[in-house]
Q: What sequence folds into this?
């Protein structure tokens, strides 16, 4: 049944008759797709701004046959860095298209900042009150089936309200290479457990402290002494997967290549409140006492309440009224500081503590005009007036998505992927995973190794570039420089197949004989020919391999192309608006040297070859 909230959003856009025309029905599932510029007015009615980056698609998905409400949204923001888009699936009672679009834009910028060849997307499942475990499992399974329609442009991972086990369910239905951040038995890496995102923020902090001398070129930072990291004090807002792992990784010290020792942790908050001590908190004890629900402050207080210099407060947000050299924001609250109470910030600027560095481990991006204006004002106060260095979220918290992306960059080999014949059968899939557990363990180990190297390298590069740009132009604010870094990467990648494809080419018809097609292949010096109808709609592909089969099997000379061709629905194709990087990956992954280029109506508009990509792309780079 269509969720009530989703239905209300659709009513903002369509009458009943209009919706029936727009709706795509596939079995028990319904879809409404809004496309970027084409449906700009409708998308903006949802409170989503359409700009040069995106969104490319805003999609409503729901199950219409069951009594249980099942549905949500998918937003594919931008694919310039490559296909598919990557981004988590949020599962909350209040998720909205606007929220999903904002998160998708964050993924566009984060994936670009992380220099990953994937676009930005996000999905959201609308939760229902008092959902039972059985109902929740049913919703997850059905959402997996709905997403299968879009695996070419979007691959999900976990987000608020979902976890690695949910991604396992998604993979059971859609295949191991179409979902990221899976469970260990599928070659995943327990991103939260190993501290993938937290590790990135530790690396960022280490790099910032190694470049403090550079920051002092800005007048507002001249007041600060050149502290070493072990001379600094630290507050952690939120002691969950990121906050607690940040503290643990600091203790271990393996990521502190520039600075040898960690700062002194003086304050921590969780949902029970916050604890603070100028003398420092016992990190080993905090990690020991932390509950599975990430609560630690109240029990730590009970153990330490007799200490004179120790403070406990049951208002979590008041931690941000305390002062320290470093503040790590690790709770899902984008506006941790505000001008006033309008957007319900954790603290207003006039009551905030004195900090030198803020590291945004939690996502802060918003596409709402008023929120952007608020961010601008806050950064003017904190960065330009008070001299608070703000390390923007997607430049420093991309460790999780980098680890997840390596499940794509080091894909599951074909011989390990779940066979089509058992997809959706949990018991048989589990048997398959158990049978190949050693191979999956080795794959996970290699993915983690390469992901760690990539994370540490790209975050150090980003922080260096970030500080260099801020110093070069003192009028710029941190969020503006962070966006500039991501956009420059997107623009660099933003060259399309239509810019390099062959537009003068020969096709054949299904009723041609194989010898006739072979003559064209030889004359055109091509490995394949598109097989089209009178309107140039792709019906299939005939290749030199098919001609070889014709000869080897000594088939009759009047054998038709349609008898040996690969049908259109099984043919490998690419869109003229796909990024060149996607074309390169497509050719490499499928071990082919050329593919037909087809538009949205499946009309063949060109051909792209590996040689052509090399020559024309190099020429464009030389021209630049």
A:
């Amino acid at each position: 049944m269509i969720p009530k909230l989703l239905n209300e959003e659709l009513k903002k856009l369509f009458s009943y008759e209009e919706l029936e025309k727009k709706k795509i029905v596939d079995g028990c599932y319904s879809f409404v797709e809004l496309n970027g510029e084409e449906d700009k007015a409708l998308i903006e009615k949802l409170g989503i701004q359409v700009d040069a980056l995106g969104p490319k698609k805003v999609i409503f998905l729901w199950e219409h046959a069951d009594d249980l409400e099942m549905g949500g949204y998918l937003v594919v923001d931008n694919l310039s860095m490559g296909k598919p888009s990557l981004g988590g699936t949020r599962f909350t009672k209040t998720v909205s298209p606007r929220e999903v679009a904002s998160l998708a834009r964050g993924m566009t910028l984060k994936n670009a900042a992380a220099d990953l060849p994937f676009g930005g997307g996000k999905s959201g499942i609308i939760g229902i009150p008092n959902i039972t475990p059985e109902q929740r499992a049913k919703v997850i399974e059905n959402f997996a089936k709905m997403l299968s329609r879009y695996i070419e442009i979007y691959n999900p991972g976990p987000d608020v309200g979902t976890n690695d086990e949910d991604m396992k369910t998604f993979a059971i239905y859609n295949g191991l290479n179409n979902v990221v951040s899976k469970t260990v038995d599928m070659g995943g890496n327990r991103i939260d457990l190993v501290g993938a995102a937290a590790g990135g923020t530790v690396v960022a902090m280490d790099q910032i402290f190694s470049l403090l001398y550079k920051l002092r070129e800005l007048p507002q930072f001249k007041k600060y002494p050149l502290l070493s990291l072990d001379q600094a004090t630290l507050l952690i807002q939120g002691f969950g997967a990121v906050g607690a792992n940040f503290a643990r990784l600091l203790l271990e010290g393996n990521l502190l290549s520039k600075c040898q020792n960690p700062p002194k942790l003086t304050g921590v908050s969780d949902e029970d409140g916050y604890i603070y001590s100028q003398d420092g908190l016992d990190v080993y004890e905090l990690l020991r006492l932390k509950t599975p629900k990430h609560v630690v402050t109240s029990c730590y207080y009970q153990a330490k309440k007799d200490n004179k210099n120790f403070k406990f407060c049951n208002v979590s947000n008041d931690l941000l009224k305390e002062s320290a050299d470093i503040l790590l924001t690790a709770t899902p609250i984008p506006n941790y500081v505000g001008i006033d109470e309008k957007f319900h910030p954790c603290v207003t600027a006039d009551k905030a503590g004195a900090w030198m560095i803020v590291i945004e481990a939690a996502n802060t991006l918003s596409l709402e005009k008023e929120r952007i204006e608020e961010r601008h004002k806050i950064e003017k106060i904190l960065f330009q007036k008070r001299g608070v260095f703000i390390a923007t979220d997607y430049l420093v918290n991309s460790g999780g998505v980098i680890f997840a992306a390596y499940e794509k960059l080091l894909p599951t080999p074909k011989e390990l992927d779940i066979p089509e014949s058992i997809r959706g059968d949990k018991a048989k899939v589990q048997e398959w995973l158990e049978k190949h557990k050693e191979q999956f363990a080795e794959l996970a180990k290699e993915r983690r190794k390469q992901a760690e190297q990539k994370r540490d390298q790209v975050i150090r590069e980003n922080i260096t570039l970030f500080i260099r740009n801020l110093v070069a132009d003192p009028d710029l604010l941190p969020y503006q420089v962070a966006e500039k870094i991501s956009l420059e990467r997107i623009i660099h990648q933003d060259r399309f197949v239509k810019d390099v494809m062959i537009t003068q080419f020969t096709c054949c018809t299904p009723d041609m004989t194989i010898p006739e097609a072979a003559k064209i292949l030889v004359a055109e010096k091509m490995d394949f020919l598109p097989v089209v109808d009178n309107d140039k709609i792709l019906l299939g592909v005939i290749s030199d391999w098919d001609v070889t089969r014709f000869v080897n099997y000594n088939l009759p000379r009047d054998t038709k192309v349609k008898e040996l061709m690969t049908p259109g629905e099984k043919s490998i194709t690419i869109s003229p608006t796909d990024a060149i990087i996607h074309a390169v990956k497509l050719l490499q992954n499928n071990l082919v040297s050329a593919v037909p280029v087809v538009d949205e109506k499946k009309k063949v508009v060109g051909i792209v070859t590996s040689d052509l990509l090399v020559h024309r792309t190099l020429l464009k780079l030389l021209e630049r």
